Amino acid sequence: MGHKTKVKVKRSSNKRFVRIVEAVIKDSKGRVLLLQRSTNNSTYVGKWQLPGGKAHKKESAIHAINREVFEETGRKCVVVDLLKEITFSEKFKGEESTVELSIFSCKVKGSIILSKDHCKHKFVRASKLIKKILAPVSKKALFD
Questions:
Q1: Which of 25, 35, 98, 127 could bond to 118 as cystine, CB 3.0-4.6 Å?
Q2: Among 92, 126, 114, 93, which residue's Cα sits nearest to residue 35?
Q3: Which residues contact 140 (CB under 8 A, 6 or more apart)?
């Protein structure tokens, strides 16, 4: 992390297109915030992920990350930098999809107040040890 990467794949007209945004939020010790998906989710229950989610149609990536961070943490975020953009193909809800992922470095102040979509949060060192517990998109954000 820390360097901008942009990998683009041509969008196929016969595939569904999904834009996802994720936030790398660090505490004063440099640890990264992860949220654990609750049983209110239909996929990846119990997996850990970076704050973020799907952008709405015609919503900018910046607006989407601000909205998602607020919805999931109860905190307003300040976007510091665009860290990486990746476009890849993935099965999403049984359908082959083109996913455009934007990862932002963000700052928040105050205590985390979780939404119903998450049951726990923690700050962890971004190491390969956490790779096994992450949801697939967060793995791409941190390790690809």
A1: 35
A2: 114
A3: 86, 88, 101
Cα 70–chain centre separation: 13
Q: How many domains would you assign to the chain? A: 1
Q: Report yes or no: 98 and 89 within 8 Å, Cβ to Cβ.
A: yes
Q: Which ranges constitute the DSSP H helices of the chain?
A: 61-73, 136-143
In this prediction the pTM is 0.81
Low-confidence ranges of the chain (pLDDT < 50): 1-12
For strand 48-49 and strand 95-108, is the pairing parallel, antiparallel, or unpaired?
Answer: unpaired
The CA-atom distances, in angstroms, between 109 and each of 22, 78, 142 are 17, 9, 22
CA distances from 101 to 15, 85, 86, 121, 129 (A): 16, 6, 5, 22, 23
Identify the CATH number of the domain in which residue 65 sits. 3.90.79.10
Encoded tokens for 31: 């640890």
Domain of 26 in residue numbering reads as 5-143
pLDDT digits (tens, 9 = 90+) for 16-47: 889 999 999 999 998 999 999 999 988 889 99
The rounded distance, in Å, linking the Cα atoms of 13 and 23 is: 28
